[in-house]
């Protein structure tokens, strides 16, 4: 039977892949509470792409497959302590088995960027009890990592698909293939021994939006990952 555990969940408008770095600026009270709790624990929370079709008590709902983020650094942006900057690294991916809603529903006309919005949420939280969680939690099960590496032939095929897509998207502007080689160098994607991480990074360079990347996170086999990446990079 697969082991499950309960973790904090941070829905974002992005897909975090294993072993990718993710810096975040934290300013909402509910996510400051999440970071505080993580720092008192193992420093880990779940990052999920926002599910645009659902909500949890009015807040953004997470997609059911995400990635564990490990906090490596946390510091105040300003001396007032109202904003935090954290640096995280992606670890294993996971699947949500059960969502645990936050104690607070999203207030009407809530503005996450305003001081008034923060004060309103904090006031409600104090009335309910500051020990209660303002952020979404979930019972999750870990997804085994793909432990194979892509062959150089497979990698070169993906590179050619990516180049054709970028050149096509740039029309009528002309983009030379050798210019794209410099882009690959900048992102450290030139190697005779490519790994799974190379596929994730190349897909991110070729995706129009995070929703195109979510299927890559959800596969368990190398062949499926390559197939999904080929679909993403193929000119429609």
Structure description:
There is one protein chain. The longest helix has 19 residues, at 152-170. A hairpin with a 2-residue loop joins strand 3 (44-56) and strand 4. The N and C termini lie far apart (41 Å). The chain has 236 residues and is an alpha+beta fold. The protein has helices spanning 29-40, 115-128, 152-170, 177-186, 196-206, 214-218, 222-233, and strands at 4-12, 21-26, 44-56, 59-62, 65-76, 84-100, 137-142. A 5-stranded mixed β-barrel has the order 1-3-5-6-7. The protein folds into 2 domains: 4-142, Roll (Archaeosine Trna-guanine Transglycosylase, Chain: A, domain 4), CATH 2.30.130; 152-233, no CATH class.
Put the structure in a nutshell.
The protein is an alpha+beta fold. The chain has helices at residues 29-40, 115-128, 152-170, 177-186, 196-206, 214-218, 222-233, and strands spanning 4-12, 21-26, 44-56, 59-62, 65-76, 84-100, 137-142. The chain folds into two domains: 4-142, LON domain-like (Archaeosine Trna-guanine Transglycosylase, Chain: A, domain 4, Roll); 152-233, no CATH class.
Instruction: State the name of the first-level CATH class of the largest domain.
Output: Mainly Beta
Largest sheet: 5 strands, mixed, barrel
Helix content: 25-40%
**What integer value in Å does the Rg equal?**
20 Å
Q: Figure out the total of helices.
A: 7
- Report the portion of residues in β strands: 25-35%
Annotate the secondary structure layout.
Elements lengths: L3 E9 L8 E6 L2 H12 L3 E13 L2 E4 L2 E12 L7 E17 L14 H14 L8 E6 L9 H19 L6 H10 L9 H11 L7 H5 L3 H12 L3
Parallel strand pairs: 1-3
Antiparallel strand pairs: 1-7, 2-6, 3-4, 3-5, 5-6, 6-7
């Amino acid at each position: 039977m697969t082991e499950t555990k309960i973790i904090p969940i941070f829905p974002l408008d992005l897909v975090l892949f294993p072993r990718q770095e993710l810096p975040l600026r934290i300013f909402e009270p509910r996510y400051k509470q999440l970071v505080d709790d993580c720092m008192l624990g193992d420093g880990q929370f779940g990052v999920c792409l926002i599910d645009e079709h659902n909500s949890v008590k009015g807040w953004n709902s997470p997609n059911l497959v995400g990635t564990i983020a490990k906090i490596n650094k946390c510091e105040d942006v300003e001396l007032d302590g109202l904003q935090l900057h954290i640096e995280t690294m992606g670890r294993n991916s996971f699947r949500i088995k059960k969502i645990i809603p936050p104690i607070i529903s999203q207030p009407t006309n809530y503005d996450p960027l305003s001081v008034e919005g923060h004060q309103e949420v904090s006031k409600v939280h104090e009335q309910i009890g500051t020990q209660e969680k303002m952020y979404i939690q979930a019972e999750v099960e870990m997804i085994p990592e793909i432990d194979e590496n892509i062959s150089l032939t497979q990698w070169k095929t993906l590179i050619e698909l990516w180049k054709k897509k970028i050149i096509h998207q740039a029309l009528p502007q002309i983009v030379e293939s050798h210019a794209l080689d410099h882009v690959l160098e900048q992102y450290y994607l030139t190697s005779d021994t490519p790994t799974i991480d190379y596929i994730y990074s190349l897909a991110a360079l070729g995706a129009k939006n995070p929703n195109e990347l979510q299927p890559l996170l959800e596969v368990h086999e190398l062949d499926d990952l390559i197939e999904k990446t080929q679909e993403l990079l193929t000119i429609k």
